[in-house]
Design a protein that fits this description.
Layout (H helix, E strand, L loop, with lengths): L2 H11 L7 H7 L11 E4 L9 H16 L3 E4 L13 H11 L6 E2 L15 H13 L3 E4 L3 H14 L17 H9 L5 E4 L8 E6 L3 E6 L6 E3 L7 H11 L4 E5 L6 H11 L5 E5 L2 E4 L6 E3 L11 H5 L4 H12 L3 H7 L20 E2 L2 H13 L3 H15 L1 H9 L1 H9 L14 H7 L5 H7 L12 H10 L7 H14 L2 E2 L2 H6 L6 E2 H13 L7 H25 L1
Parallel strand pairs: 1-2, 2-3, 9-10, 11-13, 14-15
Antiparallel strand pairs: 4-5, 5-8, 6-7, 11-12
This protein binds one RNA strand through helix 6, strand 7, helix 8, strand 12 and helix 12.
Length: 553
RNA sequence: GGCGAGUUGGUGAAGUGGCUUAACACACUGCCCUUUCACGGCAGCAUUCACGGAUUCGAAUUCCGUACUCGUCACCA
Protein backbone atom coordinates (compact mmCIF):
# COMPACT_ATOMS: atom_id res chain seq x y z
CA UNK A 1 0.00 0.00 0.00
CA UNK A 2 1.27 3.43 -0.86
CA UNK A 3 1.17 6.24 1.64
CA UNK A 4 -1.76 7.70 -0.31
CA UNK A 5 -3.67 4.46 0.06
CA UNK A 6 -2.85 4.16 3.76
CA UNK A 7 -4.19 7.63 4.29
CA UNK A 8 -7.37 6.68 2.51
CA UNK A 9 -7.62 3.48 4.54
CA UNK A 10 -7.13 5.38 7.80
CA UNK A 11 -9.94 7.73 6.88
CA UNK A 12 -12.25 4.87 5.98
CA UNK A 13 -11.52 3.12 9.27
CA UNK A 14 -11.68 6.22 11.48
CA UNK A 15 -13.81 8.82 9.75
CA UNK A 16 -15.07 10.67 12.78
CA UNK A 17 -12.13 11.51 14.99
CA UNK A 18 -12.31 15.07 16.21
CA UNK A 19 -8.63 15.65 16.84
CA UNK A 20 -5.18 14.67 15.73
CA UNK A 21 -2.12 13.61 17.69
CA UNK A 22 -0.69 17.07 18.03
CA UNK A 23 -3.86 18.17 19.72
CA UNK A 24 -3.40 15.59 22.48
CA UNK A 25 0.30 16.18 22.77
CA UNK A 26 -0.42 19.83 23.44
CA UNK A 27 -3.35 19.09 25.71
CA UNK A 28 -1.16 17.18 28.14
CA UNK A 29 2.08 19.10 28.49
CA UNK A 30 5.11 18.02 30.46
CA UNK A 31 4.52 18.14 34.21
CA UNK A 32 6.16 20.88 36.18
CA UNK A 33 7.95 18.90 38.85
CA UNK A 34 11.27 19.07 40.68
CA UNK A 35 14.22 17.09 39.39
CA UNK A 36 14.02 13.41 40.18
CA UNK A 37 10.32 13.51 40.96
CA UNK A 38 8.65 10.24 40.11
CA UNK A 39 5.25 10.03 38.53
CA UNK A 40 3.67 6.70 39.35
CA UNK A 41 0.30 5.23 38.80
CA UNK A 42 -1.90 2.46 40.02
CA UNK A 43 -4.06 1.01 37.27
CA UNK A 44 -6.54 -1.46 38.63
CA UNK A 45 -8.99 -3.35 36.51
CA UNK A 46 -12.38 -3.17 38.20
CA UNK A 47 -13.00 -6.87 38.50
CA UNK A 48 -14.19 -6.92 42.07
CA UNK A 49 -12.19 -7.51 45.19
CA UNK A 50 -8.67 -6.31 45.86
CA UNK A 51 -5.74 -8.60 46.56
CA UNK A 52 -2.83 -7.91 48.91
CA UNK A 53 -0.55 -7.91 45.88
CA UNK A 54 -2.51 -5.03 44.34
CA UNK A 55 -2.34 -3.14 47.58
CA UNK A 56 1.39 -3.70 47.74
CA UNK A 57 1.98 -2.31 44.30
CA UNK A 58 -0.23 0.71 45.02
CA UNK A 59 1.67 1.20 48.26
CA UNK A 60 4.95 1.24 46.35
CA UNK A 61 3.52 3.72 43.86
CA UNK A 62 2.58 5.97 46.73
CA UNK A 63 5.83 5.89 48.67
CA UNK A 64 8.07 6.44 45.68
CA UNK A 65 6.02 9.34 44.40
CA UNK A 66 5.78 10.85 47.85
CA UNK A 67 9.43 10.67 48.77
CA UNK A 68 10.54 12.13 45.45
CA UNK A 69 8.04 14.98 45.49
CA UNK A 70 6.22 13.51 42.52
CA UNK A 71 2.70 12.46 41.68
CA UNK A 72 0.86 9.23 42.28
CA UNK A 73 -2.31 8.90 40.27
CA UNK A 74 -5.13 6.40 39.96
CA UNK A 75 -6.27 5.22 36.56
CA UNK A 76 -9.13 2.82 36.06
CA UNK A 77 -8.24 0.24 33.43
CA UNK A 78 -11.65 -0.89 32.34
CA UNK A 79 -11.11 -1.59 28.67
CA UNK A 80 -12.58 -5.05 28.94
CA UNK A 81 -16.31 -4.77 29.31
CA UNK A 82 -16.66 -8.52 29.84
CA UNK A 83 -14.69 -8.35 33.06
CA UNK A 84 -16.58 -5.46 34.53
CA UNK A 85 -18.14 -6.15 37.89
CA UNK A 86 -21.01 -4.14 39.27
CA UNK A 87 -19.65 -1.69 41.83
CA UNK A 88 -16.09 -2.76 41.09
CA UNK A 89 -14.74 0.75 40.67
CA UNK A 90 -16.34 2.02 43.86
CA UNK A 91 -14.94 -0.99 45.66
CA UNK A 92 -11.41 -0.20 44.55
CA UNK A 93 -11.51 3.46 45.46
CA UNK A 94 -13.09 2.54 48.79
CA UNK A 95 -10.47 -0.07 49.61
CA UNK A 96 -7.63 2.30 48.75
CA UNK A 97 -9.07 4.90 51.08
CA UNK A 98 -9.60 2.32 53.77
CA UNK A 99 -5.96 1.36 53.51
CA UNK A 100 -4.84 4.92 53.60
CA UNK A 101 -3.32 4.69 50.16
CA UNK A 102 -4.27 8.05 48.79
CA UNK A 103 -3.43 9.05 45.22
CA UNK A 104 -2.89 12.75 44.68
CA UNK A 105 -4.47 12.69 41.27
CA UNK A 106 -6.69 10.49 39.16
CA UNK A 107 -10.10 8.94 39.03
CA UNK A 108 -12.34 10.66 41.62
CA UNK A 109 -9.32 12.74 42.63
CA UNK A 110 -9.22 14.98 39.56
CA UNK A 111 -6.21 16.36 37.71
CA UNK A 112 -5.17 17.84 34.40
CA UNK A 113 -4.30 14.62 32.63
CA UNK A 114 -7.69 12.95 32.56
CA UNK A 115 -9.99 11.35 31.84
CA UNK A 116 -8.60 8.76 34.24
CA UNK A 117 -10.90 5.99 33.16
CA UNK A 118 -9.77 4.19 30.05
CA UNK A 119 -13.27 3.60 28.74
CA UNK A 120 -13.55 7.39 28.44
CA UNK A 121 -10.43 7.63 26.32
CA UNK A 122 -11.32 5.48 23.34
CA UNK A 123 -11.09 8.36 20.93
CA UNK A 124 -7.56 9.16 22.06
CA UNK A 125 -6.38 5.61 21.43
CA UNK A 126 -8.02 5.55 18.02
CA UNK A 127 -6.36 8.79 17.06
CA UNK A 128 -2.93 7.32 17.68
CA UNK A 129 -3.83 4.10 15.91
CA UNK A 130 -5.04 6.02 12.90
CA UNK A 131 -1.66 7.68 12.73
CA UNK A 132 0.04 4.30 12.98
CA UNK A 133 -2.00 3.09 10.02
CA UNK A 134 -0.99 6.09 7.97
CA UNK A 135 2.61 5.38 8.82
CA UNK A 136 2.25 1.71 7.87
CA UNK A 137 2.77 0.43 11.40
CA UNK A 138 -0.70 -0.97 11.96
CA UNK A 139 -3.27 -2.68 9.81
CA UNK A 140 -6.75 -4.15 9.96
CA UNK A 141 -6.79 -7.91 10.34
CA UNK A 142 -9.83 -9.91 9.36
CA UNK A 143 -8.73 -13.32 10.58
CA UNK A 144 -11.47 -15.30 12.21
CA UNK A 145 -11.17 -17.17 15.50
CA UNK A 146 -11.06 -20.40 13.56
CA UNK A 147 -8.17 -19.22 11.42
CA UNK A 148 -6.30 -18.11 14.50
CA UNK A 149 -6.90 -21.45 16.17
CA UNK A 150 -5.71 -23.32 13.14
CA UNK A 151 -2.41 -21.45 12.79
CA UNK A 152 -1.85 -22.00 16.49
CA UNK A 153 -2.37 -25.72 16.00
CA UNK A 154 0.00 -25.72 13.07
CA UNK A 155 2.59 -23.86 15.11
CA UNK A 156 2.26 -26.31 17.94
CA UNK A 157 2.84 -29.24 15.60
CA UNK A 158 5.84 -27.53 14.01
CA UNK A 159 7.08 -26.51 17.45
CA UNK A 160 7.54 -22.96 16.33
CA UNK A 161 6.66 -19.81 18.15
CA UNK A 162 2.94 -19.32 18.65
CA UNK A 163 1.29 -16.15 17.45
CA UNK A 164 0.56 -13.90 14.52
CA UNK A 165 3.84 -12.95 12.85
CA UNK A 166 5.77 -13.35 9.63
CA UNK A 167 4.04 -15.69 7.22
CA UNK A 168 1.24 -16.28 9.69
CA UNK A 169 0.24 -12.63 9.57
CA UNK A 170 -1.80 -13.17 6.44
CA UNK A 171 -3.58 -9.82 6.44
CA UNK A 172 -0.43 -7.86 6.96
CA UNK A 173 -0.06 -6.84 3.34
CA UNK A 174 -3.62 -6.75 2.12
CA UNK A 175 -4.18 -4.33 -0.74
CA UNK A 176 -6.54 -1.42 -0.29
CA UNK A 177 -8.99 -3.12 -2.62
CA UNK A 178 -8.94 -6.30 -0.52
CA UNK A 179 -9.57 -4.39 2.66
CA UNK A 180 -12.41 -2.53 1.01
CA UNK A 181 -13.87 -5.85 -0.09
CA UNK A 182 -13.82 -7.17 3.50
CA UNK A 183 -15.36 -3.97 4.74
CA UNK A 184 -18.08 -4.19 2.13
CA UNK A 185 -18.89 -7.69 3.38
CA UNK A 186 -19.08 -6.32 6.88
CA UNK A 187 -16.32 -8.66 8.07
CA UNK A 188 -15.31 -7.90 11.61
CA UNK A 189 -11.70 -6.94 12.18
CA UNK A 190 -9.12 -5.89 14.75
CA UNK A 191 -6.26 -3.50 14.28
CA UNK A 192 -2.91 -5.19 14.65
CA UNK A 193 0.54 -3.81 15.10
CA UNK A 194 2.68 -4.27 12.01
CA UNK A 195 5.69 -5.13 14.08
CA UNK A 196 8.99 -3.87 12.69
CA UNK A 197 10.94 -6.13 15.06
CA UNK A 198 13.40 -8.85 14.16
CA UNK A 199 13.43 -11.79 16.56
CA UNK A 200 17.03 -12.52 15.65
CA UNK A 201 18.13 -9.26 17.14
CA UNK A 202 18.29 -8.63 20.86
CA UNK A 203 17.17 -5.78 23.00
CA UNK A 204 18.40 -5.12 26.49
CA UNK A 205 16.26 -3.29 28.97
CA UNK A 206 17.12 -2.08 32.42
CA UNK A 207 14.46 -2.85 34.97
CA UNK A 208 14.74 -0.75 38.12
CA UNK A 209 14.39 -3.81 40.30
CA UNK A 210 15.51 -6.76 38.21
CA UNK A 211 18.40 -5.07 36.49
CA UNK A 212 19.43 -5.80 32.93
CA UNK A 213 17.22 -8.23 31.05
CA UNK A 214 17.83 -9.37 27.49
CA UNK A 215 15.06 -10.33 25.10
CA UNK A 216 14.74 -11.08 21.42
CA UNK A 217 13.12 -8.16 19.62
CA UNK A 218 9.37 -8.31 19.47
CA UNK A 219 8.14 -9.41 16.07
CA UNK A 220 4.50 -10.31 16.58
CA UNK A 221 1.55 -8.47 15.19
CA UNK A 222 -0.21 -7.94 18.47
CA UNK A 223 -3.74 -6.66 18.61
CA UNK A 224 -3.91 -2.95 19.31
CA UNK A 225 -7.60 -2.30 18.93
CA UNK A 226 -10.14 -5.00 19.57
CA UNK A 227 -13.14 -5.78 17.41
CA UNK A 228 -15.21 -3.26 19.34
CA UNK A 229 -12.69 -0.50 18.78
CA UNK A 230 -11.48 -0.67 22.35
CA UNK A 231 -7.72 -0.81 23.04
CA UNK A 232 -5.78 -3.71 24.49
CA UNK A 233 -3.87 -3.17 27.71
CA UNK A 234 -0.61 -2.78 25.82
CA UNK A 235 -1.74 0.07 23.63
CA UNK A 236 -3.57 1.82 26.43
CA UNK A 237 -0.53 1.51 28.67
CA UNK A 238 1.78 3.11 26.13
CA UNK A 239 -0.53 5.97 25.24
CA UNK A 240 -1.78 6.73 28.73
CA UNK A 241 1.55 6.59 30.45
CA UNK A 242 3.00 8.81 27.77
CA UNK A 243 0.21 11.35 27.85
CA UNK A 244 -0.01 11.32 31.64
CA UNK A 245 3.77 11.59 31.84
CA UNK A 246 4.34 8.62 34.06
CA UNK A 247 8.02 8.23 34.82
CA UNK A 248 8.00 4.86 36.58
CA UNK A 249 5.68 2.00 35.89
CA UNK A 250 5.62 -0.16 39.00
CA UNK A 251 3.72 -3.35 38.33
CA UNK A 252 3.64 -7.04 39.04
CA UNK A 253 6.31 -9.14 37.42
CA UNK A 254 3.79 -11.11 35.39
CA UNK A 255 4.38 -8.22 32.98
CA UNK A 256 8.07 -8.67 32.35
CA UNK A 257 7.54 -10.83 29.33
CA UNK A 258 5.61 -8.08 27.63
CA UNK A 259 8.43 -5.60 28.01
CA UNK A 260 9.61 -6.12 24.41
CA UNK A 261 6.15 -5.31 23.08
CA UNK A 262 5.77 -2.26 25.28
CA UNK A 263 9.23 -1.08 24.49
CA UNK A 264 8.47 -1.35 20.78
CA UNK A 265 5.17 0.43 21.14
CA UNK A 266 6.83 3.38 22.83
CA UNK A 267 9.41 3.43 20.09
CA UNK A 268 7.10 3.43 17.08
CA UNK A 269 4.73 5.87 18.72
CA UNK A 270 7.67 8.19 19.23
CA UNK A 271 7.29 8.27 23.00
CA UNK A 272 10.02 8.66 25.53
CA UNK A 273 10.19 5.26 27.22
CA UNK A 274 9.06 4.92 30.83
CA UNK A 275 11.19 3.22 33.44
CA UNK A 276 9.87 -0.12 34.60
CA UNK A 277 10.00 -1.57 38.08
CA UNK A 278 8.65 -5.09 38.16
CA UNK A 279 7.85 -6.24 41.64
CA UNK A 280 7.96 -9.86 42.67
CA UNK A 281 4.68 -11.47 43.63
CA UNK A 282 3.85 -12.04 47.27
CA UNK A 283 4.04 -15.76 47.79
CA UNK A 284 3.52 -18.14 50.64
CA UNK A 285 4.82 -21.56 51.52
CA UNK A 286 1.78 -23.75 51.50
CA UNK A 287 1.51 -25.29 54.95
CA UNK A 288 0.03 -28.46 53.53
CA UNK A 289 2.10 -29.16 50.47
CA UNK A 290 5.24 -27.22 51.39
CA UNK A 291 5.40 -25.68 47.95
CA UNK A 292 5.67 -22.00 47.21
CA UNK A 293 2.66 -20.43 45.59
CA UNK A 294 1.02 -17.10 45.17
CA UNK A 295 -1.15 -15.89 47.99
CA UNK A 296 -4.62 -17.20 47.41
CA UNK A 297 -7.70 -15.44 48.59
CA UNK A 298 -9.43 -18.72 49.17
CA UNK A 299 -6.71 -20.31 51.29
CA UNK A 300 -4.99 -17.34 52.90
CA UNK A 301 -7.07 -14.83 54.79
CA UNK A 302 -4.25 -12.27 54.49
CA UNK A 303 -4.65 -12.16 50.73
CA UNK A 304 -7.97 -10.37 50.80
CA UNK A 305 -8.15 -6.69 51.59
CA UNK A 306 -11.18 -7.00 53.83
CA UNK A 307 -9.42 -9.26 56.29
CA UNK A 308 -7.32 -6.59 57.95
CA UNK A 309 -10.10 -4.27 58.88
CA UNK A 310 -12.44 -6.97 60.00
CA UNK A 311 -9.97 -8.69 62.26
CA UNK A 312 -8.83 -5.42 63.76
CA UNK A 313 -5.35 -5.11 62.35
CA UNK A 314 -4.31 -1.46 62.17
CA UNK A 315 -3.75 -0.19 58.66
CA UNK A 316 -0.55 1.45 59.76
CA UNK A 317 0.77 -1.92 60.93
CA UNK A 318 0.00 -3.33 57.51
CA UNK A 319 1.90 -0.39 56.00
CA UNK A 320 4.80 -1.29 58.25
CA UNK A 321 4.72 -4.85 56.99
CA UNK A 322 4.47 -3.76 53.36
CA UNK A 323 7.42 -1.48 53.97
CA UNK A 324 9.51 -4.33 55.35
CA UNK A 325 8.63 -6.39 52.30
CA UNK A 326 9.30 -3.47 50.01
CA UNK A 327 12.80 -2.71 51.21
CA UNK A 328 14.87 -5.36 52.90
CA UNK A 329 16.67 -2.83 55.08
CA UNK A 330 13.53 -1.14 56.35
CA UNK A 331 12.96 -3.50 59.25
CA UNK A 332 16.36 -2.96 60.79
CA UNK A 333 16.08 0.77 60.34
CA UNK A 334 12.67 0.86 61.95
CA UNK A 335 13.80 -1.09 65.00
CA UNK A 336 16.72 1.26 65.47
CA UNK A 337 14.64 4.39 65.04
CA UNK A 338 11.94 4.20 67.66
CA UNK A 339 10.61 7.66 66.96
CA UNK A 340 10.51 7.55 63.17
CA UNK A 341 7.76 6.54 60.79
CA UNK A 342 7.55 5.12 57.29
CA UNK A 343 7.68 8.49 55.60
CA UNK A 344 11.09 9.15 57.16
CA UNK A 345 12.59 6.16 55.42
CA UNK A 346 14.25 6.46 52.04
CA UNK A 347 13.06 3.59 49.88
CA UNK A 348 15.06 2.49 46.88
CA UNK A 349 14.39 0.10 44.05
CA UNK A 350 17.61 -1.79 44.47
CA UNK A 351 16.57 -2.87 47.93
CA UNK A 352 13.53 -4.61 46.55
CA UNK A 353 13.34 -8.37 46.31
CA UNK A 354 13.93 -9.83 42.86
CA UNK A 355 12.53 -13.28 43.56
CA UNK A 356 9.22 -13.89 45.23
CA UNK A 357 8.51 -12.16 48.53
CA UNK A 358 7.13 -14.56 51.05
CA UNK A 359 4.35 -13.63 53.38
CA UNK A 360 5.46 -14.38 56.92
CA UNK A 361 2.41 -14.34 59.17
CA UNK A 362 4.46 -14.69 62.37
CA UNK A 363 6.66 -11.78 61.50
CA UNK A 364 3.64 -9.74 60.57
CA UNK A 365 2.17 -10.49 63.96
CA UNK A 366 5.34 -9.29 65.61
CA UNK A 367 5.28 -6.08 63.60
CA UNK A 368 1.74 -5.47 64.79
CA UNK A 369 2.89 -5.93 68.38
CA UNK A 370 5.71 -3.49 67.85
CA UNK A 371 3.25 -1.04 66.36
CA UNK A 372 1.01 -1.22 69.43
CA UNK A 373 3.91 -1.08 71.82
CA UNK A 374 4.93 2.28 70.39
CA UNK A 375 1.48 3.77 70.82
CA UNK A 376 0.45 5.48 74.04
CA UNK A 377 -2.42 4.08 76.07
CA UNK A 378 -4.62 6.89 74.89
CA UNK A 379 -3.81 6.25 71.24
CA UNK A 380 -4.53 2.56 71.64
CA UNK A 381 -7.79 3.43 73.34
CA UNK A 382 -8.91 5.82 70.61
CA UNK A 383 -8.01 3.50 67.78
CA UNK A 384 -9.62 0.52 69.43
CA UNK A 385 -12.78 2.47 70.11
CA UNK A 386 -12.85 3.65 66.54
CA UNK A 387 -12.52 0.11 65.27
CA UNK A 388 -15.08 -1.29 67.71
CA UNK A 389 -17.64 1.27 66.61
CA UNK A 390 -18.09 -0.66 63.38
CA UNK A 391 -16.92 -4.14 64.22
CA UNK A 392 -17.92 -4.65 67.85
CA UNK A 393 -20.59 -2.17 68.83
CA UNK A 394 -21.22 -3.64 72.28
CA UNK A 395 -17.58 -3.36 73.15
CA UNK A 396 -17.51 0.19 71.82
CA UNK A 397 -20.19 1.13 74.32
CA UNK A 398 -18.24 -0.42 77.16
CA UNK A 399 -15.09 1.37 76.06
CA UNK A 400 -16.84 4.72 75.95
CA UNK A 401 -18.36 4.19 79.37
CA UNK A 402 -15.00 3.30 80.90
CA UNK A 403 -12.81 5.75 79.06
CA UNK A 404 -10.57 7.16 81.75
CA UNK A 405 -9.87 3.89 83.54
CA UNK A 406 -9.40 2.07 80.26
CA UNK A 407 -6.75 4.54 79.17
CA UNK A 408 -5.00 4.05 82.48
CA UNK A 409 -5.01 0.29 82.06
CA UNK A 410 -3.74 0.56 78.52
CA UNK A 411 -0.96 2.84 79.71
CA UNK A 412 0.50 0.39 82.23
CA UNK A 413 4.20 -0.23 81.59
CA UNK A 414 4.04 1.98 78.52
CA UNK A 415 6.48 4.62 79.68
CA UNK A 416 10.14 3.89 79.33
CA UNK A 417 12.11 2.46 76.47
CA UNK A 418 10.85 -1.08 76.81
CA UNK A 419 7.09 -1.06 76.48
CA UNK A 420 4.99 -4.19 76.70
CA UNK A 421 4.24 -6.12 73.52
CA UNK A 422 1.07 -7.96 74.24
CA UNK A 423 -1.41 -6.68 71.69
CA UNK A 424 -1.33 -7.36 67.99
CA UNK A 425 -4.82 -6.31 66.97
CA UNK A 426 -7.76 -4.31 68.28
CA UNK A 427 -9.71 -7.40 69.21
CA UNK A 428 -6.83 -8.40 71.50
CA UNK A 429 -7.58 -5.37 73.64
CA UNK A 430 -10.95 -6.84 74.43
CA UNK A 431 -9.42 -10.21 75.24
CA UNK A 432 -6.40 -9.06 77.17
CA UNK A 433 -8.01 -6.27 79.12
CA UNK A 434 -11.34 -7.80 80.00
CA UNK A 435 -10.51 -7.44 83.69
CA UNK A 436 -10.37 -3.69 83.20
CA UNK A 437 -14.13 -3.40 82.85
CA UNK A 438 -16.23 -4.59 85.78
CA UNK A 439 -19.22 -5.82 83.82
CA UNK A 440 -17.00 -7.84 81.50
CA UNK A 441 -15.05 -9.26 84.39
CA UNK A 442 -18.19 -10.31 86.20
CA UNK A 443 -19.50 -11.99 83.10
CA UNK A 444 -16.21 -13.73 82.51
CA UNK A 445 -16.30 -15.06 86.07
CA UNK A 446 -12.82 -16.57 86.12
CA UNK A 447 -13.38 -18.50 82.91
CA UNK A 448 -9.99 -17.22 81.69
CA UNK A 449 -8.23 -18.73 84.70
CA UNK A 450 -6.15 -21.59 83.39
CA UNK A 451 -4.63 -22.88 86.64
CA UNK A 452 -5.95 -25.61 88.87
CA UNK A 453 -5.06 -24.18 92.25
CA UNK A 454 -7.48 -22.50 94.63
CA UNK A 455 -6.20 -19.65 96.71
CA UNK A 456 -6.48 -18.72 100.36
CA UNK A 457 -9.18 -16.09 100.52
CA UNK A 458 -8.69 -15.31 104.20
CA UNK A 459 -5.03 -14.65 103.69
CA UNK A 460 -5.78 -12.25 100.85
CA UNK A 461 -8.48 -10.49 102.86
CA UNK A 462 -6.11 -10.14 105.78
CA UNK A 463 -3.62 -8.46 103.48
CA UNK A 464 -6.16 -6.22 101.82
CA UNK A 465 -7.71 -5.06 105.09
CA UNK A 466 -4.57 -4.63 107.14
CA UNK A 467 -1.61 -4.06 104.88
CA UNK A 468 -2.81 -2.61 101.61
CA UNK A 469 -1.56 0.90 100.94
CA UNK A 470 -1.95 2.18 97.41
CA UNK A 471 -0.91 5.73 98.14
CA UNK A 472 2.77 4.88 98.12
CA UNK A 473 5.18 4.11 95.34
CA UNK A 474 5.29 0.79 93.59
CA UNK A 475 8.45 -0.14 95.44
CA UNK A 476 7.09 0.76 98.86
CA UNK A 477 3.91 -1.09 98.10
CA UNK A 478 5.84 -4.20 97.21
CA UNK A 479 7.96 -3.94 100.33
CA UNK A 480 4.78 -4.08 102.34
CA UNK A 481 3.72 -7.18 100.49
CA UNK A 482 7.07 -8.68 101.43
CA UNK A 483 6.51 -7.72 105.05
CA UNK A 484 3.13 -9.36 104.99
CA UNK A 485 4.59 -12.46 103.37
CA UNK A 486 7.21 -12.84 106.10
CA UNK A 487 4.71 -12.46 108.90
CA UNK A 488 2.62 -15.21 107.42
CA UNK A 489 5.43 -17.66 106.94
CA UNK A 490 6.24 -16.90 103.30
CA UNK A 491 9.73 -16.04 102.10
CA UNK A 492 10.26 -12.40 101.11
CA UNK A 493 12.02 -13.38 97.90
CA UNK A 494 11.85 -16.45 95.69
CA UNK A 495 15.60 -16.87 96.07
CA UNK A 496 15.36 -17.22 99.80
CA UNK A 497 12.60 -19.71 99.42
CA UNK A 498 14.68 -21.77 97.04
CA UNK A 499 17.50 -21.89 99.59
CA UNK A 500 15.30 -23.17 102.41
CA UNK A 501 12.09 -24.49 100.93
CA UNK A 502 11.26 -26.36 104.11
CA UNK A 503 11.18 -23.33 106.35
CA UNK A 504 8.51 -21.49 104.36
CA UNK A 505 4.98 -22.04 103.10
CA UNK A 506 5.97 -20.32 99.88
CA UNK A 507 7.23 -16.90 98.80
CA UNK A 508 5.95 -13.40 97.94
CA UNK A 509 5.25 -14.53 94.44
CA UNK A 510 2.62 -16.88 95.77
CA UNK A 511 0.87 -14.06 97.58
CA UNK A 512 0.98 -11.99 94.42
CA UNK A 513 -0.34 -14.89 92.41
CA UNK A 514 -3.33 -15.21 94.71
CA UNK A 515 -3.99 -11.49 94.41
CA UNK A 516 -3.51 -11.53 90.68
CA UNK A 517 -5.86 -14.40 90.09
CA UNK A 518 -8.63 -12.95 92.24
CA UNK A 519 -8.27 -9.49 90.76
CA UNK A 520 -7.66 -10.25 87.09
CA UNK A 521 -8.89 -13.79 86.75
CA UNK A 522 -5.63 -14.99 85.23
CA UNK A 523 -2.13 -16.06 86.08
CA UNK A 524 -0.50 -13.47 83.89
CA UNK A 525 -1.10 -9.75 83.85
CA UNK A 526 0.67 -6.44 83.56
CA UNK A 527 2.07 -4.87 86.70
CA UNK A 528 -0.17 -5.78 89.64
CA UNK A 529 0.39 -2.59 91.61
CA UNK A 530 -0.75 -0.47 88.69
CA UNK A 531 -3.86 -2.54 88.21
CA UNK A 532 -4.74 -2.39 91.89
CA UNK A 533 -4.18 1.32 92.01
CA UNK A 534 -6.57 1.92 89.14
CA UNK A 535 -9.23 -0.36 90.56
CA UNK A 536 -9.03 0.86 94.15
CA UNK A 537 -9.67 -1.05 97.32
CA UNK A 538 -13.45 -1.26 97.03
CA UNK A 539 -13.45 -2.88 93.63
CA UNK A 540 -10.68 -5.19 94.68
CA UNK A 541 -12.71 -6.37 97.65
CA UNK A 542 -15.69 -6.94 95.39
CA UNK A 543 -13.58 -9.14 93.17
CA UNK A 544 -12.43 -11.18 96.13
CA UNK A 545 -16.10 -11.66 96.90
CA UNK A 546 -16.68 -12.76 93.37
CA UNK A 547 -13.81 -15.20 93.69
CA UNK A 548 -15.44 -16.65 96.79
CA UNK A 549 -18.58 -17.31 94.77
CA UNK A 550 -16.48 -18.89 92.05
CA UNK A 551 -14.85 -21.28 94.50
CA UNK A 552 -18.16 -22.26 96.10
CA UNK A 553 -20.20 -22.58 92.95
C1' G B 1 7.84 -26.38 23.90
C1' G B 2 9.81 -20.96 23.13
C1' C B 3 11.09 -16.68 25.96
C1' G B 4 12.23 -14.48 30.86
C1' A B 5 13.29 -14.72 36.10
C1' G B 6 14.37 -17.15 40.71
C1' U B 7 16.89 -21.08 43.97
C1' U B 8 21.22 -18.63 50.89
C1' G B 9 19.16 -21.73 58.12
C1' G B 10 12.88 -23.76 60.95
C1' U B 11 10.99 -18.78 58.57
C1' G B 12 11.64 -13.74 56.12
C1' A B 13 16.10 -12.31 54.24
C1' A B 14 21.41 -9.38 53.92
C1' G B 15 25.17 -10.23 50.62
C1' U B 16 27.31 -7.37 43.55
C1' G B 17 35.24 -11.33 43.86
C1' G B 18 39.04 -11.01 49.54
C1' C B 19 36.56 -6.89 55.67
C1' U B 20 31.82 -13.51 55.78
C1' U B 21 34.74 -18.38 60.91
C1' A B 22 27.38 -15.79 55.90
C1' A B 23 24.36 -9.60 58.78
C1' C B 24 19.69 -8.49 60.73
C1' A B 25 14.79 -9.87 62.07
C1' C B 26 11.02 -13.62 63.26
C1' A B 27 10.52 -18.43 65.50
C1' C B 28 12.56 -21.98 68.78
C1' U B 29 15.90 -23.60 73.04
C1' G B 30 18.87 -22.50 77.44
C1' C B 31 20.52 -18.99 81.07
C1' C B 32 20.03 -14.09 83.46
C1' C B 33 16.66 -10.11 85.19
C1' U B 34 11.99 -10.72 87.83
C1' U B 35 5.86 -10.82 92.27
C1' U B 36 3.31 -13.43 86.91
C1' C B 37 3.41 -12.44 81.87
C1' A B 38 5.51 -9.25 78.51
C1' C B 39 9.91 -6.31 77.84
C1' G B 40 15.27 -6.45 78.06
C1' G B 41 20.29 -8.85 78.31
C1' C B 42 23.49 -13.10 77.13
C1' A B 43 24.16 -17.67 74.61
C1' G B 44 22.72 -21.57 71.06
C1' C B 45 20.47 -22.40 66.23
C1' A B 46 23.65 -22.71 57.78
C1' U B 47 31.67 -25.33 58.65
C1' U B 48 27.92 -23.38 54.23
C1' C B 49 24.89 -20.53 50.01
C1' A B 50 20.05 -26.25 44.63
C1' C B 51 23.64 -29.62 41.93
C1' G B 52 27.95 -30.36 38.48
C1' G B 53 31.89 -28.07 35.97
C1' A B 54 34.94 -23.69 34.46
C1' U B 55 37.59 -18.83 35.39
C1' U B 56 40.65 -16.95 39.61
C1' C B 57 45.99 -16.77 44.26
C1' G B 58 40.80 -16.40 46.16
C1' A B 59 33.58 -17.46 44.33
C1' A B 60 27.30 -17.38 47.95
C1' U B 61 29.06 -13.51 44.65
C1' U B 62 31.54 -14.23 37.37
C1' C B 63 30.72 -17.94 33.21
C1' C B 64 28.63 -22.71 31.22
C1' G B 65 25.48 -26.98 31.94
C1' U B 66 21.64 -29.78 34.90
C1' A B 67 17.47 -29.95 38.22
C1' C B 68 13.44 -27.68 40.45
C1' U B 69 10.05 -23.37 41.17
C1' C B 70 7.54 -19.18 39.20
C1' G B 71 5.86 -15.85 35.23
C1' U B 72 4.43 -15.42 30.13
C1' C B 73 3.20 -17.03 25.17
C1' A B 74 -5.48 -13.91 24.49
C1' C B 75 -9.59 -9.42 20.59
C1' C B 76 -7.78 -10.36 30.11
C1' A B 77 -5.51 -6.98 32.65
Amino acid sequence: MSEEERRELADILFPNLKHDITYYENLYPERDLPDGAMVTRYGPSPTGSVHLGNLFSAFCDMIYARQSGGVFFLRIEDTDQKRMVEGGIENITGVLKGFNIIPNEGYTYGGNYGPYKQSDRTEIYQTYVKDLIVRGLAYPCFMSEEELASIKEEQEINKTKIGVYGVYAVDRDLSLAEVKEHLKNNDSYVIRLKSPGDANKQIEVNDCIKGKIKFPEYDMDSVLLKKDGTPTYHLAHAIDDHLMHTTHVIRGDEWVSSIPLHYQLFQILGFKPVKYAHIAPITIKDPETGTIRKLSKRKDPWAGAKFYEESGIPIEALHLYLATIANSNFEEWYLKNQDKSISDFKFSFDKMAIGGTSFDALKFNNICKTYFSRKSGEEVYNETLNWAKTYDKDYAKLLSANKSDMIKFLSIEKDGPRPRKDISKYSDVKEEFSYAIDSMFEKEFYSKFDGDKTYDIDLVLDYLNNYLDLDVSNEEWFNKVREFALINGYAATPKEYKKNPDSYKGHVGDICEALRVMITGRLKSPDLYSIMKILGKDKILKRVDLYKKFINK
